[in-house]
Amino acid sequence: MERIDIHAHCVPPSYRKYCLQSDFAGKGHPDGMPAIPEWSASAHINFMKQLNIQKSVLSMSSPATHLTPGNDEEGRSVTRRANNDMSKICADHPGHFLFFASLPLPDVEGALMEIDYALDHLGAVGFQILTNSHGIYPGDARFSRVFDKLSERKTIAFFHPTTCLVRTDNALNKVTPLPGVPAPLMEFMFDSTRSLMSLLTSGTVERCPGITFLACHCGATFPPIMERIAEFSPMFGCGISGEKIKQLLQSRFYFDLAGVPFPDQIHGLLRLVDSTRLLYGSDYPYTSAALSESLAHRVDHGLEGLFGSEVVRQILLENARGLLGQTYE
């Protein structure tokens, strides 16, 4: 089946070099993973051919591009280099790739400059934002100007999970509840949930009508606790009803199906949104080509069982075309 891959990554040589040198990035073991995957445009295009992917939207994976806490100058430099690299990859292969630019958050001033540069000069179709940026979640008031700017520019904000980070006494600590277990296995799902809660309960989603929000991994663990969040939200001064959350998710959010949404996870999300909000995502190359192919077939069969072929085509292809608009052409 034809598809558009909304959740795909690249690893340009310069970014690999930065990650291998960075303590924050695990010196080649990001988020506890065994290694940074190998990547090239040609290998990615071959992978796309195997799965009949018409277009892949590239982004940087965790830990993104601000790799030394407190060093905003380096964060801006690494971010600009990564965005320039992705822009060149897309220019060299216009029939295959688009990209979500990175932002050097939590550096607000740097992020504001990068938004305009990436849209006006590099051809970005949106922005990748980590679920937390050095321990600050997206609904935090410190990021208000960034989201106001994204809304003003009427763009896409793609939220990618990362390791939970906690600020204590001016120190930044990685949360590893189960030592030896890489964060992507479980903790990424919980951080995506924290990010969604932060966006919705802070009022950021309602305040910023120009942003189209894109959440990863089938809504992570948010769907089964949505009503709990709504019920108890007045206790911390930001009450929002379950019905209001559902309305915002259905009208302002899309959800990619990267990961393992079938056979079970998908059903929780479908209690909150319908098929028009679903998109295909591979998470290649952080998910290997072989595993991505196996998971794609599982998604195809699972969607067929739920919806039938016409709706499956909409989910795999047409919903993303609508999201990307003229930039897809």
Describe the protein's architecture and organization.
The protein starts with a strand and ends in a 5-residue tail after the last helix. The chain has one domain: Metal-dependent hydrolases (TIM Barrel). The protein is α/β, with parallel strands linked by helices and 329 residues long. Helices cover 44% and strands 15% of the residues. Strands 1-2-3-4-5-8-9-10 form an 8-stranded parallel beta sheet, sandwiched between helices.
CATH superfamily: Metal-dependent hydrolases
Q: Total number of β-strand segments?
A: 10
Q: What is the CATH top level name?
A: Alpha Beta
Structural class: alpha/beta
β-strand amount: 5-15%
Share of helix, binned: 40-55%
Under CATH, the topology can be stated as TIM Barrel
Through-space gap between termini: 19 Å
Overall pLDDT confidence = 95
Provide a count of the helices: 12
Order of helices and strands: EHHEHEHEHEEEHHEHHEHEHH
